[in-house]
Amino acid sequence: RYRSYAGYIIPYIELKFDKGAMCQLTTGPMVGMEQQKELQKSVIHEMLENHDYYNVLVKCSEIPVRY
Length: 67
Prior knowledge:
4 strands, globular
């Protein structure tokens, strides 16, 4: 399958698995203030719950961003 983002076409594979199998989601490194990171985590958590993924820990990567 394919999706578009910022003018690019990005291929992806759609996977199906038991929703109870996911216990943690780690976002990629982000630039920004801690408040922005916490807001992003709460939005992701809300999205997961809207898709029936409950009790999933959402955390930000500890890896520093490099350019």
